[in-house]
């Protein structure tokens, strides 16, 4: 059976000083550091295995994936700055002590874990869980599963990029072959193989100019302790800024999945 699953997610990146995109790649074993995203993001989230990243200004988009030496799932991650406003800092007498930009960093991590074959009893195309608040006492009641393929395996990566009407397009194609599938039947399990699974991730980066309303806060501090005594929204200032918008989607293609039953469906398990 040949099937495809499409998931579209939106990643919004705003920056006042964007730079051209740059691609980096590297590798490292589990528990080791590398000169890529482990230096730029939490190593417990994206460290180890092989990776590739695209940096645009202060934003970072990347993919980590398993190898023959260190099998693992595909993890898509991103880090991007958010500008939340300006703080005007004053002492109790109202003396201006300076201004500071209020910045924050947002993180996104999306892991592709497994393919699950299930019997769609009500025909709605979803793997329904009747008791989402699972407890040890009640257990989990869901539509029956016929098998699964765990995607913590070795992946081969191919990359290409081009420009469409001023939009940067980066395409990452990851391929795994001879992937084991565990099938459940009559309280017994057996293993079979899927010829090939291809996950194609497309990242599109566009730039635009727009007017933003920047909030201005007055922050009173205690000069002795440097602690914040009060914060008050003073107003807004409208500025023209350059924005970067990043959107990614991925397609999943499976070659030669032999369903346990002709009426079964596949679902992609992610977290």
Please give a structural write-up.
- The chain is mainly β.
- It has one domain.
- It has helices at residues 37-40, 43-46; strands spanning 3-14, 22-28, 49-56, 59-65, 74-90, 96-119, 145-150, 156-164, 167-185, 188-221, 228-255, 264-270.
- The chain starts with a strand and ends with a strand.
Write the layout of secondary structure elements.
Layout: E1 3-14, E2 22-28, H1 37-40, H2 43-46, E3 49-56, E4 59-65, E5 74-90, E6 96-119, E7 145-150, E8 156-164, E9 167-185, E10 188-221, E11 228-255, E12 264-270
Parallel strand pairs: 5-10
Antiparallel strand pairs: 1-11, 2-3, 3-4, 4-5, 5-6, 6-7, 6-12, 7-9, 8-9, 9-10, 10-11
Short description:
By secondary structure, this protein is mainly beta. Helix content is 3%, strand content 66%.
The end-to-end span amounts to: 25 Å
General form: elongated
Unreliable parts: 1-21, 28-47, 131-138
Number of helices: 2
Order of helices and strands: EEHHEEEEEEEEEE
What percent strand?
A: over 45%
Radius of gyration: 24 Å
Strand order in the sheet with the most strands = 5-6-7-9-10
The helix-and-strand class reads mainly beta
Give the biggest beta sheet. 5 strands, mixed, barrel
Query: What level of helicity do the residues show?
Result: under 10%
- What is the average of the pLDDT values? 78
Total DSSP E strands = 12
Overall structural domain count: 1
């Amino acid at each position: 059976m040949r099937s495809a699953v499409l998931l579209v997610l939106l990643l919004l990146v705003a920056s006042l000083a964007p730079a051209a995109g740059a691609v980096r790649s590297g590798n490292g074993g589990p528990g080791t550091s590398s000169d890529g995203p482990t230096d730029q993001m939490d190593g417990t989230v994206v460290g180890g295995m092989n990776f590739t990243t695209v940096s645009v200004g202060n934003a970072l988009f990347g993919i980590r994936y398993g190898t023959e030496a260190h099998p693992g799932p595909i993890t898509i991650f991103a880090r991007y700055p958010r500008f939340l406003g300006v703080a005007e800092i004053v002492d109790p007498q109202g003396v201006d002590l300076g201004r500071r930009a209020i910045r924050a960093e947002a993180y996104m991590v999306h892991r592709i874990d497994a393919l699950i074959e299930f019997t769609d009893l009500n025909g709605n195309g979803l793997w329904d869980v009747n008791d989402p608040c699972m407890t040890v006492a009640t257990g989990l009641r869901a539509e029956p599963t016929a098998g699964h393929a765990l995607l913590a395996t070795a992946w081969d990566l191919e990359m290409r990029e081009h420009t469409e009407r001023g939009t940067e397009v980066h395409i990452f194609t990851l391929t795994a072959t001879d992937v084991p599938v565990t099938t459940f039947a009559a309280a017994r399990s057996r293993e079979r193989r899927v010829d090939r699974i291809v996950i194609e991730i497309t990242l599109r980066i566009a730039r635009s100019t727009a007017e933003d309303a920047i909030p201005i806060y007055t922050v009173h501090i205690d000069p002795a302790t440097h602690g914040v005594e009060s914060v008050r929204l003073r107003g807004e200032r409208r500025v023209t800024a350059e924005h970067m918008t990043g959107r990614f989607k991925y397609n999943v293609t499976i070659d030669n999945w032999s369903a346990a039953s002709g009426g079964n469906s596949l679902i992609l398990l992610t977290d």
